Amino acid sequence: MALDCLGVPPHAIVTTGLEKRYPRGGTYAVRGVDLAVEEGEVYGFLGPNGAGKSTTVRLLVTLLRPTAGTAFVAGHDVVKDPAAVRASIGVALQDAAIDPLMTGRELLRLQSVLHGLGRREVGPRSDLLLDRVGLAEAGDKRVGEYSGGMRRRLDLAMALIHEPSVLFLDEPTTGLDPSSRLLLWNEVRRLRDQGTTVFLTTQYLEEADQLADRVGIISGGSIVAEDTPEALKAEVGRPHVHVSLADPADLARALEVAASVGRPTPGVTLECLDVSVEDGARELPALVRVLDDAGIAVAGMSVVRPTLDDVFLQKTGEHLADTDEVPA
After folding, report:
1. Cα–Cα distance between 131 and 107 in angstroms, integer?
2. Which of 153, 161, 231, 257 has the most CB atoms less than 10 A away?
3. CA–CA gap between residue 134 and residue 142 (Å, rounded)
4. Is 239 left (phi over 0), alpha (psi -120 to 50) or beta?
5. Pairing of strands 42-46, 197-201
6. Phi/psi class of residue 134: alpha, beta or left (left: φ > 0; alpha: ψ in -120 to 50)?
């Protein structure tokens, strides 16, 4: 990643004390949010319903005006220069309105004209993006005939038509089938590799874990945690090995000998224990060895690692909705 003259990574999105307060009741939707998203970074933005996640995105893409604080996107002030912000970003929101009577190709060409692309660029650029999002064969069909997943992929292509430096994706894979979800995952990775900044809101923790360089968790309108997925999970705890014993009578002895490998604790039943270890699967051979040397028969063993759901629960006091659906 490029550095500026002070050796600091340049930022695509910077907010300071960003707030949105509604006059009726004085309710804060966003309360003092500070963000610094680096150029070329995929930033995962997580939060429960009503936490301020969507409001923050709408402030950053100039659909809402902040009550207080500042926000710069692609180097432009969202209040003082919203037109420059809109020219620099691509936006794929969940509630985007698409004319069902137009074809996918027609919509892409219209979007090209709105962004001021030259006449010679429009056709080739539209064809390229239709192919990249898997809609090459459906480009001349009316959007009213598209499935929900096809519309989401068209949303992405329209957001990319002018090659924005910053891309906002609002829960882009919600409701998609596994193959469409994988296609979009690969497109996000490709964009990052080309230097595009991606601000990704998602309800799938596995998606954030797989794609995001850093994750921010918002709750009650404020950022309550921010770091790389691995660092956030490390805050919750180390990996542990779950051991099921063949004979519950061996539990006390197993706890004793497992202490030479990690930090053992009794499990939820008499025939199991959990051993907190430094390096997950690499500790398995040593743990198997000490149990075997002690004559303790093992029925099963598995490595359990902290997840972003564990982080989310610790930081917000609740599970994120739909975390049980893991993208293929």
Report:
1. 15
2. 153
3. 16
4. beta
5. parallel
6. left
